């Protein structure tokens, strides 16, 4: 997964525009105070406060990717999120974590899902991960890697599909993304990419219904909290309450 586009010019340009726009608006009393509060951290040398180890999906384990493989942002306020992009690691879970921590790799996804269903988050959803090989799609998407190889259907286990579907359902709910093949896509479908993942053995006809079922369960749980009293510990770990607490937002 190579991110070949230099993003520094976009970052500087956006900061200059935002800072200049904010200053002009203040002068004319047009920009609201809450908008100023959202923009203050983009001033050079100022960073938006974060809590180390926060996750956006309850039950995920946090392992930080190298800061060279993503760009700080304030999504969805500065970039709307309307896609989930499915990847395959072309390697083991451990090797994917290793390369995403390598500053020379130039790419990383927000999440990795293992064959056993474990989920590791390496980049916050509010930040732009270099995972799609396309700047526009990086800015508008959340990237999910899956452990395995595109030519080995046996790598795509039941546990992986189910865990990934729960994760994608929660992402879609958070950003009001439609659960369909227009908005949940493979890396191969990103314009300009030379990647083929998730490959012909990724079962979209199975995956999308699993995402919809997970979304329905979440909606029912939210509407009737007592209905989830009999869920397993694993399900509880990815409940809406745990998700909100883990996200810290």
TrEMBL record:
Regions of compositional bias (Low complexity) in chain numbering: 222-249
Keyword Cytoplasm included in the entry's annotation: no
Keyword Hydrolase among record annotations: yes
Catalytic activity, as annotated: Hydrolyzes the link between N-acetylmuramoyl residues and L-amino acid residues in certain cell-wall glycopeptides
Transmembrane regions listed in the UniProt entry: 12-32
Enzyme Commission identifier(s): 3.5.1.28
Domain N-acetylmuramoyl-L-alanine amidase: 70-199
Position of the signal peptide: none
Gene Ontology molecular function, alphabetical: N-acetylmuramoyl-L-alanine amidase activity
Spans annotated as Disordered: 218-249
Keywords: Cell wall biogenesis/degradation, Hydrolase, Membrane, Transmembrane, Transmembrane helix
Top-level taxon of origin: Bacteria
GO-annotated biological processes: cell wall organization; peptidoglycan catabolic process; peptidoglycan turnover
Protein name, per record: N-acetylmuramoyl-L-alanine amidase
Organism whose genome encodes this protein: Streptomyces dioscori
């Amino acid at each position: 997964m190579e991110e070949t586009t230099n993003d520094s010019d976009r970052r500087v340009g956006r900061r200059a525009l935002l800072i200049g726009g904010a200053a002009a608006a203040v002068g004319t009393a047009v920009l609201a105070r809450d908008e100023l509060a959202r923009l203050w951290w983009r001033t050079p040398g100022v960073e938006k406060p974060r809590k180390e180890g926060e996750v956006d999906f309850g039950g995920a384990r946090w392992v930080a990717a190298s800061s060279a493989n993503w760009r700080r942002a304030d999504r969805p306020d500065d970039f709307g999120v309307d896609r989930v992009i499915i990847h395959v690691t072309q390697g083991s879970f451990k090797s994917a974590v290793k390369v995403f921590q390598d500053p020379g790799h130039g790419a990383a996804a927000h999440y990795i899902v293992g064959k056993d269903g474990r989920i590791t988050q390496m980049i916050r959803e509010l930040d732009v991960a270099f995972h799609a090989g396309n700047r526009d799609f990086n800015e508008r998407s959340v990237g999910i890697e899956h452990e395995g190889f595109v030519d080995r259907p046996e790598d795509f286990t039941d546990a992986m599909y189910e865990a990934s579907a729960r994760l994608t359902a929660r992402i879609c709910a958070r950003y009001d993304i439609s659960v369909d093949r227009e908005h949940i896509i493979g890396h191969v479908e990103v314009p300009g990419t030379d990647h083929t993942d998730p490959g012909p053995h990724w079962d979209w006809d199975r995956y999308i219904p699993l995402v919809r079922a997970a979304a329905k369960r979440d909606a029912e749980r939210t509407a009737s909290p007592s209905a989830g009293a009999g869920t397993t510990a694993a399900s509880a770990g990815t409940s809406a309450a745990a998700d909100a607490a883990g996200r810290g937002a």
